[in-house]
Amino acid sequence: PTGTYEFVTSANANDMTGDSITRFAISGALAFTNASSSSAVISADGSYTEFNTGENGGEYGAGYIAKWTGIKPSADGTITVRASTGNGSTTGVSYGFSGFMLKRTN
Fold this sequence. Notes:
The strands form two sheets. This protein has a four-stranded antiparallel beta sheet with strand order 3-6-1-8, with no helix packed on it. The protein has a four-stranded antiparallel beta sheet with strand order 4-5-2-7, with no helix packed on it. The chain has strands at 5-10, 21-27, 29-34, 41-42, 48-52, 66-73, 80-85, 99-104. The N and C termini lie close together (11 Å). It is mainly beta. 0% of the residues lie in helices and 43% in strands. Strand 4 (41-42) and strand 5 (48-52) form a beta hairpin. It contains no helices and eight strands. The relative contact order is 0.39.
């Protein structure tokens, strides 16, 4: 709980068949800075990042990432990062983490 962390994730279905906006959101942290890809959609408070994970790699994509730095976890040492359907959709397709990195920075 006394450390500071960095979290990076992304997803890529490598599929141009539809609009697959995924929202990656952090919660439970006392502090953080959103350092995600600048052309992704980032909430005003930095708590979430959205991008098209269907077209995020290979010949189709830009290689977007969701990234938070300076993460201070809650008093019990936890944070939560979730992937869900983005862009306000309740029926769209989204993809979970293709991979992630959690690193203690101090």
